[in-house]
Design goal:
The protein is α+β, with helices and mostly antiparallel strands. It has ten helices and eleven strands. The protein is globular, with a radius of gyration of 22 Å. The structure holds calcium ion (2 copies).
Length: 310
């Protein structure tokens, strides 16, 4: 690790410690006024929320700082370095930020309420390469698209879901979280776990960040590009991430121009954050999807959703 990087990591570690320590102090103040018979669970819950807030603030600070420092997002940057086992007060704190746009956004499958054929083919190739039945993509499209006409043999709309022992309706709107797939025809824990590192659900149409995407996702997007060329790029980008779309095109013998313009980018606006706190017998974690906008002097971040993790 070079000196600048070491200083950067140290600064970020300090940021997290300060954020969590401040929340611990606030929590202890709140505790002093709490009555003795207050349920321990409620207190633990309150503390977990304080810590989660602090951890998320830390992540947003790191992401804003990154946007001020660079116009691209790559895996050699400080945000991608997870923090584990930091002692803060009596707690042990960890945090990790992942680029949500390293994955294929399943909501891209539907454009203006109807199936997007190009994205449909990308998803089918990706599922196939991961050993998940490509026919299941039909059911996701139906779940998201606004009509109620089932697609192909494996699609499913209200007519299918209302006939289940515990009936419900198709959402007919974009996925909010990936776990919604549990409600979609044909999906189970095994398939969702298999897909998780490669797909995501983001509220707006998003390109994939070529500087962070796994080779499986890049191959699905670039079917004409030989796999060894994609692997070579994934190795080369560690030391030399693509600076912009033009630079990205230069990395391939036959530049996949259309995909680079419409499906790929070298930076990201959506990040997934996980914060974990362990203190005494209480272990709390929270996950959030963070949207980052703007670069240079004016980056801003917003939390799209957050949830506790168990
Ligand atoms: Ca960056
Ligand atoms: Ca539908």
């Amino acid at each position: 690790m070079n000196r600048t990087r070491q200083r950067g990591v140290a600064a970020i570690t300090a940021l997290l410690v300060v954020a969590v320590a401040a929340s611990a102090a606030a929590w202890m103040l709140a505790q002093q006024s709490a009555t003795l018979n207050q349920a321990a669970l409620v207190a633990a819950r309150a503390q977990a929320d304080f810590y989660a807030d602090a951890g998320l603030d830390w992540a947003r600070g790191v992401l804003a700082e990154d946007a001020r420092a660079s116009a691209i997002d790559s895996l050699d940057e400080i945000w991608s370095r997870p923090l584990a086992g930091l002692p803060v007060e009596r707690a042990i704190v960890g945090g990790a930020i992942a680029d949500a746009q390293s994955r294929f956004n399943l909501n891209n499958l539907v454009k203006d309420g109807a199936r997007s054929n190009a994205d449909f083919q990308v998803a089918q190739r990706l599922f196939d390469s991961l050993g998940v039945e490509p026919g299941l993509v039909d059911a996701i499209v139906d779940w998201i698209d606004t009509d109620s006409d089932p697609l192909g043999n494996e699609g499913a709309e209200d007519s299918f879901y209302l006939g289940l022992p515990r009936p419900y309706r198709a959402a007919n709107r974009p996925l909010i979280q990936l776990e919604e797939l549990y409600r979609v025809r044909g999906f189970d824990a095994r398939r969702i776990e298999r897909l998780k590192p490669y797909v995501t659900a983001l509220p707006t149409r998003t390109p994939v960040n070529a500087n962070t995407a796994p080779p499986e996702v890049l191959s699905a997007l670039l079917p004409e590009t030989p796999k060894d060329e994609i692997r070579a790029f994934v190795v080369a980008r560690v030391a030399k991430p693509a600076r912009d779309r033009q630079d990205l095109a230069k990395r391939f013998a036959k530049p996949p121009t259309t995909a680079i313009e419409s499906d790929l980018d070298v930076k990201s606006t959506h990040f997934s954050v996980v914060v974990t706190v362990a203190q005494d017998d209480v272990r709390a974690s929270a996950e959030a999807l963070v949207l980052r906008r703007g670069t240079g002097s004016g980056p801003s971040t917003a939390i799209i959703w957050r949830r506790p993790l168990y």
